[in-house]
Design a protein that fits this description.
Number of helices of chain B: 1
Structural class of chain A: alpha+beta
Strand order of the largest sheet of chain A: 1-2
Distance between the termini of chain A: 83 Å
Strand order of the largest sheet of chain B: 29-30-31-32-33-34-35
Distance between the termini of chain B: 17 Å
Helix content of chain B: under 10%
Shape of chain A: elongated
Radius of gyration of chain B: 26 Å
Strand content of chain A: 15-25%
Structural class of chain B: mainly beta
Order of helices and strands of chain A: HEE
Shape of chain B: flat
Number of helices of chain A: 1
Largest sheet of chain A: 2 strands, antiparallel
Strand content of chain B: over 45%
Helix content of chain A: 25-40%
Oligomer: heterodimer
Chain lengths: 79, 428
């Protein structure tokens, strides 16, 4: 007759999900840091100029409006 | 008309339905989604101000609102700083974040956080100096002038017919009984004769004042001793012990013994306190920069002196050069590290390079501007201006004649309007 001595003596090994999730998160964080450091060091032409959105009054065809500095939208008056 | 008081906030002030015959108009505030905001008020406006060169600017953090005929203040998030209770609110001329308010026909001062600095109790109030810490000249109900400090405490009793915006070392220039004089803070006389006017109190009290008599300027100590005879057409202190003077139509710098430090060869001289540099302009519109030891360090056309970022930009011959305030030459990459493109010149033509000096835009333009904060640069070809984005791609072909514009600047294919006071971009 065998006596049960707790989980570590079970014949079938069980996956510790908490440790698995922790390892995956750690890998993700490391990857994020690598990407951030890479961007800082190399400087992507698209993103290296840090410039928050700015707004400017516009006047054209006798109409007033506002334009912003977002490259994707700056050709249109947003009002 | 639309005013954007703070380019970083999507609060846009719209003036519409303007009736020029009656002078009436309507106002509203919109956000970037074109939604009306701050709708509790009958009127909402930016507060305009002027600098010493009469250039118009708007307070960036505070708006004036009107409700039921009374004015109040809110910030750009809509928070009420002062409830609508005043008959009038204007900016204190030339000073940021200080507002002159009128209630029951009496004036006071409120700051940009809505704090009442001076209760409305004076028939007039104006700033004494160049900032809101220098205090105020106030007029009481009897029409007499005095001075209060920035905490509204009395500095000089209100008993004078006039007070000049000339002060220092607890000395003030006042008119009492039709006589102009210099008085101490306690009202006692410091200097009463020997001059027609006192135009400046020198930094070191022992050196006295700059005075004017018969249209000429000199220096006098407080005991009446004249240390520099009034022979100069203009005289003002640059820094302690050194004066910018005008003689025979030309400017130079002298010390208090009249020893010449910068010769009288220039059409104008200014001293920049932050940079500790003298800027002397000659007849050819070149600027000679002198250091604190009066050594001529750089000569050329001054394009920019940026005290916030600590650099000088000069055009010397065909080159654009940058210096720090110690006159050490710097590259544009040192000065403008956030840029993706840098203006460069080769064989008389302009192009752009990246941080590594690699050519991104070929040298094909007759003129160009540096990349601005939004990432755009102006380019000129065959007399017309256009623009490129921060990758060097042409977003506006050169089609605009901007030769008589004071400032060339682009946001995408929009260029800055001719009158920089109106501060808008257009496509005309």
């Amino acid at each position: 007759m065998s006596r049960a001595r707790g989980r570590r003596y079970d014949k079938e090994p069980k996956l510790n999900m908490k440790k698995v999730i922790a390892v995956i998160l750690a890998i993700i964080v490391i990857i994020m840091f690598v990407i951030i450091i890479k961007n800082i060091v190399t400087g992507d032409g698209e993103n290296s100029r840090i410039s928050s959105l700015s707004y400017f009054a516009s006047f054209n065809d006798n109409k007033w409006g506002v334009i912003d500095s977002n490259r994707k939208r700056c050709n249109k008056s947003i009002i | 008309m639309i005013i954007v008081p703070n380019s970083k906030k999507d609060v846009f002030l719209v003036t519409y339905d303007v009736d020029y015959s009656t002078g009436t108009y309507s106002t509203k505030a919109l956000n970037s989604k074109n939604e009306e905001i701050f709708t509790d008020y009958n009127q909402i406006e930016a507060i305009q101000n002027m600098d010493e060169s009469n250039n118009l600017w708007y307070e960036e953090n505070v708006l004036r609102v009107q409700k039921d005929g009374k004015y109040g203040l809110i910030n750009l998030d809509g928070k009420v700083l002062q409830e609508p209770q005043y008959e009038e609110i204007t900016a204190v001329s030339g000073i940021k974040n200080a507002f002159k308010v009128r209630k029951d026909n009496l004036y006071g001062i409120v700051d940009n956080e809505g704090k009442v600095i001076v209760q409305p109790q004076y028939t007039d109030i104006i700033n004494l100096g160049d900032d809101n810490l220098s205090g105020y000249i106030v007029r009481n109900a009897e029409g007499k002038y005095g001075i209060i400090d920035y905490t509204a405490s009395q500095v000089l009793e209100a008993k004078y017919e006039e007070i000049e915006k000339v002060y220092g070392n607890d000395l003030y220039v006042v008119t009492e009984n039709a006589t102009k004089k210099v008085v101490n803070r306690d009202g006692t006389d410091a200097l009463t004769q020997g001059f027609d006017d006192v135009t400046e109190i020198l930094t070191n009290k022992d050196n006295g004042v700059i005075f004017q008599i018969a249209g000429k300027y000199g220096v006098m100590k407080l005991d009446g001793t004249v240390t520099i005879e009034p022979t100069y057409e203009e005289l003002k202190e640059a820094k302690s012990g050194f004066l910018i003077a005008k003689l025979n139509g030309k400017y130079g710098v002298i010390d208090l013994t009249k020893a010449e430090k910068i010769p009288f060869n220039y059409t104008n001289i200014e001293y920049n306190t932050s940079a500790d540099i003298y800027l002397a302009d000659d007849e050819n519109y070149n600027t000679n920069l002198f250091n604190t030891n009066f050594e001529s360090k750089v000569q050329g056309m001054l394009l920019e002196l940026n005290v916030d970022q600590g650099y000088i930009k000069m055009s010397i011959g065909d080159d654009i050069k940058y210096y720090n305030f110690r006159f050490e030459e710097r590259t544009d990459k040192d000065i403008l590290p956030a840029n993706t493109l840098y203006l460069d010149k080769k064989d008389g033509k302009y192009g752009f390079v990246n941080k590594n000096g690699e050519v991104v835009v070929d040298y094909i333009y007759d003129d160009a501007t540096e990349q601005n904060e939004s990432g755009y640069a102006g380019i000129k070809k065959d007399g017309k201006w256009g623009s490129i984005d921060n990758t060097g791609k042409v977003v506006q072909e050169p089609i605009y004649n901007l030769d008589d514009y004071l400032l060339v600047d682009f946001i995408g294919n929009w260029h800055l309007g001719k009158d920089i006071n109106t501060n808008y971009y257009n496509k005309e």
